[in-house]
Amino acid sequence: MGLLFALLSAALLTGGSAFGYSGGGNTGGDDWAADVMANGCSCHNLEQSQDGMWSLKNFPARYEPGATYNLSLTVSDPSVADAADPAAQGGFLLRVTNGSFSGGAGFWTSDDGSLLSHTADTNHQRNWTVEWTAPDEGAGDAVLTLYFNVVNGENGNDAGDAWTRLVAVSLGTPQALEHEAGIHEMGVVLKQYWIGLIGIAVTLVFVLLAYIVLRGGSANYRG
Hints:
Blueprint (H helix, E strand, L loop, with lengths): L24 H15 L13 E5 L10 E9 L13 E7 L3 E3 L4 E3 L5 E4 L8 E7 L8 E9 L11 E9 L19 H33 L1
Antiparallel strand pairs: 1-2, 2-7, 3-6, 3-8, 4-7, 5-6, 8-9
């Protein structure tokens, strides 16, 4: 499947410092995820990086309803030095508006499946593979937001870590429109429908005849 990774927004205002949980959602849960979505991964660096590099493979340009995709995510930043194992090197939070993520070993997933993050078992790397199941037919587009950071294993607000946010879109089938009632469903039977049309036609004919008569009489008067 093709990849459509639309950069809808790369700017995120930081209203405060995010909770720095190396275990991601497995440690901080929904509160941590909400803080990341509001402030970014800004625990060790308040400023959003302009040099963040990323790769997201297998997120389809147009998803097949109900299909499951193995998304491959890789992040890096040239301004951040590599951390010596087993120190933390990176982390992420994924949020999707449609469909759901599958957890599994090494990942935390919210109860409704719309959020997924690394855990303490998977923060020593900068690449991950996760599962996303597309929504059913007629659910509309799926918007995926990625928050990620690249860290060097050091602590402190000036540790030199980097983070950024990106948005991707997978097109889906349009949402079903509300049912529009037809003439019959509104209580108008077929006979009444045709009588109404005939009445309109007769009225138009009389208007046309009156116009012709008046126009002819006006011409004779001028003569």
